[in-house]
User: Which sequence fits this backbone?
């Protein structure tokens, strides 16, 4: 089969994510089509997995091959949200949708409340192995930030199913991995703060203020503010002496 073609490619904080989301008509055997069992279907946890490197066909990479294998029903029932390796990252299941990865069943919080990130590694400690893990840490931080989740919501497959030693290559130094995710979270938050501050400090040049009323009676001004606020606009009263 031809390589997967992404429907869109995103660049989030420097990480390129190729996206081709499974739908009911994609033909993927295990596709629950169930929304996460959470408020607003918003992910409550990010679950980290490891899966081994595979032989790469010419012209592609592990992440694309795993993603494609899911589409071709060659992954058993396993469906995860993201595959990431040292060069590529594929998003194949919508974040608000239940996957099949945590071994805690149809109602388990791992499957029904978390987004699965499968980091493809070989555990050799080689530079490409370390890079895959580093990119996985960054992706985890991006997802935690996206859903306003703290570092305590970063979970391992083993947290949901203690008999499963996964992520096998990262568990031996899990706390170091958590620290990398924390560092990326701090970086992302600093970047956001900077962008917000830049937006707030008005650019030089002309500026335009919109005024909706001018009243001689304070109660009338207050009534207009109330009306605006109930319509979803922010409003202030500025007192002037004419
Ligand atoms: Zn796992």
Assistant:
């Amino acid at each position: 089969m031809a390589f997967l073609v992404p429907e869109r490619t995103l660049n989030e904080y420097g990480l390129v994510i190729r996206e081709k989301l499974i739908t009911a008509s994609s033909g993927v055997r295990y596709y629950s089509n169930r929304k996460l069992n959470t408020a607003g279907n918003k992910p409550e946890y990010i679950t980290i997995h490891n899966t081994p490197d595979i032989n790469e066909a010419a012209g592609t990479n592990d992440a694309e091959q795993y993603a494609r294998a899911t589409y071709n029903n060659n992954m058993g029932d396993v469906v995860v949200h993201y595959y990431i390796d040292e060069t590529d990252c594929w998003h194949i299941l919508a974040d608000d949708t239940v996957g099949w990865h945590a071994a805690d069943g149809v109602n388990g919080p791992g499957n029904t409340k978390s987004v699965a990130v499968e980091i493809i590694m070989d555990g050799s400690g080689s530079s490409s192995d370390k890079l895959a893990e580093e990119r996985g840490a960054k992706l985890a931080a991006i997802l935690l930030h996206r859903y306003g989740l703290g570092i305590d919501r970063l979970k391992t497959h083993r947290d949901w199913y203690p008999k499963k030693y996964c992520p096998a290559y990262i568990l031996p130094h899990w706390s170091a991995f958590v620290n990398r995710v924390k560092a990326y979270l701090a970086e992302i938050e600093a970047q956001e703060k900077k962008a917000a501050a830049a937006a707030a400090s008005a650019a030089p040049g002309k500026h335009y203020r919109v005024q909706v009323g001018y009243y001689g009676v304070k109660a009338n001004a207050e009534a207009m503010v109330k009306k605006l606020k109930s319509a979803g606009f922010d409003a202030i009263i500025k007192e002037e002496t004419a």
Summary: The radius of gyration is 23 Å.
